[in-house]
Amino acid sequence: xxxxxxxxxxxxxxxxxxxxxxxxxxxxxxxxxxxxxxxxxxxxxxxxxxxxxxxxxxxxxxxxxxxxxxxxxxxxxxxxxxxxxxxxxxxxxxxxxxxxxxxxxxxxxxxxxxxxxxxxxxxxxxxxxxxxxx
Amino acid sequence: xxxxxxxxxxxxxxxxxxxxxxxxxxxxxxxxxxxxxxxxxxxxxxxxxxxxxxxxxxxxxxxxxxxxxxxxxxxxxxxxxxxxxxxxxxxxxxxxxxxxxxxxxxxxxxxxxxxxxxxxxxxxxxxxxxxxxx
Lengths: 134, 134
Fold this sequence. Notes:
Chains A, B: Belongs to the tRNA methyltransferase O family. Two copies of one chain form a homodimer. The first copy, chain A, has helices spanning 40-43, 129-132, and strands at residues 2-4, 8-11, 31-35, 51-57, 67-68, 79-80, 93-104, 107-110, 120-126.
């Protein structure tokens, strides 16, 4: 069995899954990544303006879902969940690309993040050039 | 506590962490994603040529690491692990961008993947335009 230990939590004005934007570029609000004191040493070297990949645990998701109907076209047949970004999936790990806006100790303010208030953070990685080139 | 259930496993010629490439663009070999029968329905709609993000559990990692010395410059001071892609980190989730080369039921052959043989797969997502634009 694989166990994840949250390294922090998302602080966001988003509290309702039904009204939350589905992707960070769809008007998601700024949010604060609030890290636990235990990982303080891992936070050094964050810089304002840097782009980060934030991995979250989408704790409100349904993990029994294998096929979904894409919201872009309700007439389309159901789609395998691994060809979608649906939060409902066997291991609901959220992947969010954000920009660092401000750093205050364990609190990192970031640009548009489509995760609900209280969502556990499980990892943060820098964006690499190889992530964005084809 | 958060628990992940593997949805498959990486089949790769890479067996030794010391000699494995660190990123997929550094000569990593083709690999096969071997999924469990339980998630078969989630695999439909994969297409040859598509780009996928594969999330793995880097099971050989040291989870107690918060600062690392970047391999690019051994003279630099230690760096907070969340500003690096080091596999040694509190929640060692690997993130790999690969292209689908062939599909055979539960076995999906993909381009350069820098994960060791036997690495558990925990999620697969499509690459979105918003992942690769700044």
